[in-house]
Write a structure and sequence with these properties.
This protein is mainly alpha-helical. The chain has 5 helices and no strands. It is globular, with a radius of gyration of 16 Å.
């Protein structure tokens, strides 16, 4: 069904990562440890999102399933670090004022939406069309590129 989904995920991943070039990668030495931990799990998650459909399209369902179970460790950490960063960043930005506090509404609904899609993808793993759709939709529910955290 989604034979080339890995290319879609790679494109989305590139856009997500490029959005954090000015705020994280070019400001690496000033980033806090929580940002380093979060970006580690975010990159691991994007790697899983790329490799799983690639392996499935190549017929390597054994590795696809193994990486799917690895998501049980990676995704909760990504979700937890996302909530942690949004919580602290939104509180600091509300005090500072400006436009950024108005943008946190996006994170407040995307983190739970991303978690719900992940759960459905795990629960419906035997129903291939539903499983695939939830995994691909989740790639779209990643952070907004270019917005400082």
């Amino acid at each position: 069904m989604y034979r080339n989904a890995h290319w879609y995920v790679l494109l989305i991943s590139g856009l997500i990562i490029s959005g954090f070039v000015p705020t994280y990668f070019l400001n690496f030495e000033n980033a806090l440890p929580r940002h380093h931990v979060h970006i580690t799990f975010a990159c691991l998650w994007l790697l899983l999102l790329f490799l799983q459909p690639l392996l499935a399209s190549r017929g390597r369902l054994d590795w696809h399933r193994l990486l799917g179970w690895a998501s049980l460790a990676v995704f909760p950490m990504l979700a937890a670090t996302s909530v942690y960063i949004v919580w602290y960043a939104s509180a600091a930005d509300v005090v500072k004022g400006g436009v950024y506090p108005k943008l946190y509404w996006f994170d407040y609904w995307t983190v739970p939406a991303m978690a719900a899609l992940w759960v459905v993808g795990i629960v419906k793993r035997e129903d291939t069309p539903i499983h695939q759709r939830r995994r691909i939709l989740r790639a779209r529910n990643q952070a907004v590129p270019g917005r400082p955290r």
